[in-house]
Amino acid sequence: MLRLLGSFGPDSGRVVLFGSDAHWPGKNGLEKYPPTIPEDLEVLVKPTKKAGEDVRGKGFYQYAVSKLAIIMWMYALNGQLIKV
């Protein structure tokens, strides 16, 4: 991503990210599992299924975690841009 910033003009360019309040624990009525970034990030790419788990709740959890990851990446990118 930082390599793309070189193609922006000195007075123009933008990065657009799509977020949601789903990343905020307790803020959304559909939440059954609070969004957290797992220790093993591979779980985000290949989620595991457990017997008897609420499929809809886990689906919303995965959506919420993806939005949380976008928000966290935005803060990291902003930190890099401030250094530039």
Describe the structure.
The protein is mainly α and 84 residues long. Helix content is 44%, strand content 0%. The chain is built from three helices and no strands. The chain has helices at residues 2-5, 42-45, 55-83. The longest helix has 29 residues, at 55-83.
Helices and strands in order:
Blueprint: H1 2-5, H2 42-45, H3 55-83
How would you sum up this structure in a few lines?
With 84 residues, this protein is mainly α.
List keywords for this structure.
44% helix; mainly alpha; elongated
* Anisotropy-based shape: elongated
- C-alpha termini separation: 14 Å
Radius of gyration: 16 Å
Number of strands: 0
Low-confidence stretches: none
